[in-house]
Structures are given as structure tokens and as C-alpha cells.
């Protein structure tokens, strides 16, 4: 069943209904659902769907393209004749689209470009001189983020300026993830989001049917399961030195957050290490953070952005021995379940940011930026960290927020602490306070928030 992505489909269909030539670029990390969106969009429409081959040569991909064309021309044909060249195959697509609105999809376009480097120049020529006045609907899709952004959308690409639209497909939000399991409670759906990162493929593979812990045991802590092998498989598919990148991710998962710390932990010199970090950031696995409102500098830190990778590296490697010996179920409660609430802290902050950016309806201001903030309290000479700090469209007004993923109700002391931290932040004249809580709020805090200056948002409100 197809879930979410309604806005992307609406825009794709609106362009299709326009009848003019389109060159749509669709990209995003692996497993995020790009092909599923394309397949849903193409239902009931005349489509030539060509999926390029990962390890294929130019000849292999030409054969695959030939089969895709003949699957459109002769759906019941047992064998597909092969075109002598890519030019002749593309000319056939030109001929077919003269009398009919046809969607031509090239899925995993980077694979084709690797095997046949001149394909981008060939497509440029066709778009400029043949297809621009046609009714062809061209879709170029790829999972290699850096390739799609630099070699397809970038200024140096032969295809620069030829696209008529582009879609960067992002992981689902918490609220969208919950659509897959509407029968489950908000807390369980938040855990599902926390371990899958909103990747539809992983949500389906996890396949929670009421018992979240059982689903984790069977899909993360079993060597025969798909999700157990997934991080290693992704690194092998995307990178030439997966072992080195694995070392970098492991260092960060174990607490190293600054470049010099990561270099020391991995034994990699700072120059190459910075390059590896950049690659992992481009893949969406890592992120580089600086306190909101401050420029990158000494406070810059690195962390694991992808919740799926963060969960796997947090819990799987340290439990490899019990996993291999089949004893994981005996120690699961102590090794994993007892630590899930602590793990969910950063995930919950992400959920809260998503809520404020996409779903909050009572805000009378617009957020310009939102993230974490950390700095030193000069009075107490200790580090202060604010879960949510956001600048607004109003001069001197900021949002300051707290995110508590715990079973206990949050009390008035949290608001007082938040106001104290806002004073250390010290950049605004007016502050809007937001407190998010899994376990609800005490009566004392609710009474203090009655004046409307403090917003209290329970997990159930974010659902």
C-alpha cells in the first residue's frame, strides 16, 4: 500500500496534465521511496521505465533500455530486439512520443552515467533540439545525492538548466511514519520512527505487529535479518572504502564529536578525515552542527543524523557476541529496552523540530531557523545546552524549547530552568517558551502556562 507523498504526486500530476515537455529530477537517499513515488505516479499512464544496472557496462545498460522500450511497444513479446546504440534507442523514444504523452523514466541515472559517460551530453542535445517542443515527460532519478546535485543539477553539468522541476525526497516525519501503524499508540510509533528514521522501506521491514520489542529482536538483533546487514550493505554500495567510513561512524557513535577527537579515535589525519566526514554528510548519514545563531568555528560538532544508523551503531556492535551466540533475547531488557528512553532523547528533539516547522498551528510568528544551542554560563561557569532554539521573523524574538522523552510529568522547575538558559542565550528581547513532554505536565506547570506565554505540547498532540 502507498502512504504519504501526496504533495509530490500532486505536483507531478499537475505537470503531466500540462501536456508540455518535462524534465523532472528526483533524488534522495537509498530506501527513501523514490521509485515507489514514480511507480504510483505512472499508474495508468503510458510509461517506458528503464532502471540502470549497478555493475552494468554500457552494453548491459543498452540491452536493459532495449527491453524497457519493447516492454512498452510489445508487452507480451517473449524476446526484445536490441538497438545498435543508445542514439537509436533514444530516437525510438522520440518517435513513440510524437503521437502520445509518454513518461520516460531513467531510474538510478548515476549508474547509467558511470557506464556511458556521454549520456548527459546526449540528453542535453535531445532536450535542446528535439524534445523541448515534444510531449515527452522525462524523469531522471538517482540515489547518489552528490552525483545528482553536482552532475545533474550542478552548473558544470551538461544538463544544467534543462530540468523543469526537481524533487529531493526526504525521509518521512514522525506524523507521517505513524500512518503505517495507525492502530499503535503514539509512544510505540515514536519508537518506530526512532529506529527507522522515517524510511518507508525500513518501516515495512520492521513490521511491528503490536509487539515493538519482539520486532526489534527479530529484525535488528538476528544475523539472518535484513536490517541487521543493512548499514554494511549501504556503505558497500555507496563507498569505495566502507571499512574506513565504518570506523568514522563508530567513533562518533561512541562519543567523539569534534574533528580532533574523531581523528584521534580513528587514527586518520585531519585532512582525509574531514573528507570522509563530508562524504558521510552528503549521504545524509552524518550532520555537522553549530549552535543556532552562531557561525561555524570551534563549537562545530559532528553527530549521526540518520536515526537508523544511530540506533544500529548504538546497540548492535556492542551486543555482537550475544547476537552471534543466540543469547540476545536473555539480555535484551537490560542491554536495549532499559536504554531506549535515553536513546530517544535526540530523536524526540528531531520530532519536536518537525512539529514546529510543519504542524504547529497556533504560532503567531514564523521560524527563520531552529536547532540546538550550547554555550557557557558565565555566572556558574558550566556548559548549558538548550534543546530547541529558534530565530523568528520578528527582530529580537526567539523560541526557546525543552524536549523531555520520559514517563514522568514535567513540572514547573523545567520552565524555570528554561528561563535561566534563555538568559544565558541572551540574544533576544522576547522569548516564546515551548515545552514538549512524553509523560505530560504537572498541574503547577499547567497553571503557569495559562497566560499563553508558555506552550505545553504532549506527545499525543504531535500525533
What does the model show?
With 463 residues, the protein is α/β, with parallel strands linked by helices. It is built from 21 helices and 12 strands. The protein has helices spanning 6-18, 34-42, 58-73, 86-96, 109-115, 119-129, 145-152, 174-177, 186-196, 200-206, 212-219, 226-238, 242-253, 259-266, 270-282, 307-315, 320-324, 328-335, 340-359, 412-425, 443-448; strands spanning 22-27, 47-51, 103-107, 137-142, 165-168, 286-289, 301-304, 367-377, 382-392, 397-404, 430-437, 454-458. The strands form 3 sheets. It has a 5-stranded parallel sheet, with helices on both faces. A hairpin with a 4-residue loop joins strand 9 (382-392) and strand 10. Helix 9 (186-196) crosses helix 16 (307-315), helix 9 (186-196) crosses helix 19 and helix 12 (226-238) crosses helix 13 (242-253). It is globular, with a radius of gyration of 25 Å. The model has no long low-confidence stretch (mean pLDDT 94).
